[in-house]
Amino acid sequence: MFNGPLKLAAISAIIAVIVATYLGSSREPGHGPLAGLADRFFSSGPSRSTAKPEVAVAKAPAAPAFGFGPVRLPADKSGHYLAVVEIEGRSLRMLVDTGATYISLSHRDATTLGLQPLPSDFKNRVVTANGEIMVARTQLREVRLSNILVRDVPAAILPPGIETASLLGMSFLSKLRSFEVADGSMVLNP
To answer: What's the CATH fold of domain 53-189?
Structure first.
């Protein structure tokens, strides 16, 4: 059916798809001799859309989130979107914040997760609504929101003494295929 060169090209394409699928579905991304190969060849740059506050829509590059179906978060009385998020196997109540660059963990929530940065780890300056603070950066292996799972998510740990809710920021949200705010709910699509 196929001649020699065409058969070789078809087999090579099949092997490339299998390798890319394996790299994309590894239980621990970022490990092994071929780590990052799929991202280098198959990812696109981040894209963000600006939309009216009534119907804000954001689209991210090829979704490195795993899951099925949309997750709908209704707005609370204040118009905020709260979510119960599982991080490293423990549940936390977080405020969804599209203005936060990273997942932001209160010091208390970080301690609950077993993350205990040293005072010297608070060396990254960030600007918040309340001014500049120093945070400790970390990488979360798994973050799950209902049926959506995202691996290797950058996060910031707030220093002790700053009492605020933990935030589910763009380091998680940008991994989704899309999210939108409409009809009093935020809809997240893996």
So the answer is: Cathepsin D, subunit A; domain 1 (2.40.70)
